[in-house]
Each structure stands twice: as C-alpha cells, then as structure tokens.
Amino acid sequence: MTIVSLRDVRKSYPAPRRSADPVAAIDGVDLDVDEGDIFGIIGYSGAGKSTLVRLINALEPVTSGSITVHGTDITTLSEKDLRGVRSGIGMIFQQFNLFNAKTVRGNIDYPLLVAGVAKAERATRVAELLDFVGLSDKGDNYPDQLSGGQKQRVGIARALATSPRILLADEATSALDPETTQDVLGLLRRVNRELGITIIVITHEMEVIQSLATRVAVMEKGRVVELGDTFDVFSEP
Ligand code: ADP
Ligand code: ADP
C-alpha cells in the first residue's frame, strides 16, 4: 500500500533579484513510498531535498501538483486539518533540534504535552521510549551532557512519542562520526522493523542509503533523475 504519493509536484521561490527567474526548487516530482519501506532520497546540496521534506510535512504549500499522505491530498487541507497530518509524521534533523533547557525526559515528553496527553500516560510513554532508544539512565540529563549519537537517540524518541506512522529523517546522521552513524542507522532499522514505521531518509551520503534504504530516488536540480531498488540504482554501470 502506498503511504506517501507525489504527483507532478512543483515548488518555486520568487526570483532572488528582479532580473532573475523564479527558483524552481522542485520541478515536477512523482514519487510513491510504500507503507513499511525505508525510502531514500539522495542528491547533492541544492538538489531540492529539504524543500521536498517541507512539502511532505506540509510546512510549506506546493506551487502545483498533489501530495497524498495516507490517502489524503494534503495540498487542499485547511491549516487545522494539516495539524492532524503533521502529527502522523515524525521528524529528525541533522542538528537534532533538541530543547537545551529541557532534560531528555522533558524533550521526549514535550510532543505528548502539546497533544494534551494525561500526565500518568505521558510518564509511561516516555519511560517506554527511553527504553526503546537505550537511554533509560539518561532521562534526567540535559542535551549538552550527551554525545551526538545519544542526542539523535533522544531526537528519535521525541519524534516517535505521538506514534507517527511515518518518520522523516533529514540528514539525520550527517553531523555524526562513522561509528555513531552506524549506531543510529541500527536504531532506525529497529524503528522500521519492530514498530512498522515507514521511514523516508534524506541525505547526501550514499553509504547511508546503501546501508539503510530499500528504495531510492536520486534528485538533481529539483527532479528525480533515477528511481528504483537501492541495489539496482547503485549497481548500474
Ligand atoms: P537541498 O536540501 O537538496 O540542499 P534545498 O531544497 O535546500 O536543497 O534547495 C533547493 C533549491 O531551492 C536551491 O536552489 C535553494 O537555493 C532554493 N531554495 C530553497 N529554499 C528556498 C527559500 N526558502 N527561498 C528561496 N530559495 C530557496
Ligand atoms: P504490540 O504489537 O504488542 O502492541 P508494539 O509493536 O506496539 O507492540 O510495540 C512493541 C514495543 O515497542 C513495545 O515495547 C512498545 O512499548 C514500543 N512501542 C510501540 N510503539 C512505539 C512507538 N511509536 N515508539 C516507540 N516505541 C514504541
């Protein structure tokens, strides 16, 4: 079953100068992500990857085309309905984006607090998530007391708090050393296998895609220039 589907999606930004043309950040993209897949999107800087992430998560409107998430075309939804769509999509980031003034527990609890979950239920859920990411002994620590890999584990736990069906990973290992990268990739594999969460991985690192993704789209200048099973795409002459 398809969980995310893009049809002729375009996104342009206003011309940077009066004499220039508008920037076509996404220039006619078609994609289908199957439920349960780990789907990779790879491309050099400026290819349009981050723009695509913002469009899928409805943080920005498309210029044209349609994006369907769980069968709902999100390009026609009201701001109120979009909140529901966003809560079904977890996000993790290159710089982790943790709240430095909150403890690990406070960071993971935050989305539950915002969602209005009762206190006792939140405490149980946070403990379960800490256990899942292997940080049960770090709940009272602050982010700056953690290693990069541990911070990303907190980011993953926070992204999973409200039980999304989709996890978007935007350059999630790009700030980590190779060993820590493998560690985080292992955790993402568990998120996919044990929790059945569909993962979309955006990266410029081919090794990440090769070790994690089942399918891959290669982006260049706002377009998908190659699409297929990871093995096939990277074994072509
Ligand atoms: P990537 O994530 O692959 O590095 P981006 O999606 O950030 O690529 O950028 C794609 C293109 O769109 C680039 O040419 C970039 O300069 C342009 N772009 C991205 N965001 C904006 C914006 N908010 N305003 C204007 N141009 C943008
Ligand atoms: P069950 O099939 O028994 O409902 P789940 O597959 O939901 O079990 O959960 C398996 C394990 O993962 C449990 O320890 C559960 O607490 C934990 N878990 C379930 N959903 C999530 C989630 N979205 N994020 C993190 N941990 C979860």
Automatic annotation (TrEMBL):
The keyword Cytoplasm does not apply. One of its GO terms (cellular component) is plasma membrane. The keyword ATP-binding applies. It comes from the Bacteria. GO terms for molecular function: ATP binding; ATP hydrolysis activity. GO terms for biological process: amino acid transport. Residues 4-237 form the ABC transporter domain. Keywords: Amino-acid transport, ATP-binding, Cell membrane, Membrane, Nucleotide-binding, Translocase, Transport. Homodimer. Forms a membrane-associated complex with FtsX. Part of the ABC transporter FtsEX involved in cellular division. Has ATPase activity. Belongs to the ABC transporter superfamily. This is Methionine ABC transporter ATP-binding protein. It comes from Mycetocola reblochoni REB411. The lineage of its organism: Bacteria, Bacillati, Actinomycetota, Actinomycetes, Micrococcales. The chain holds residues 1 to 237 of 342 of the full protein.
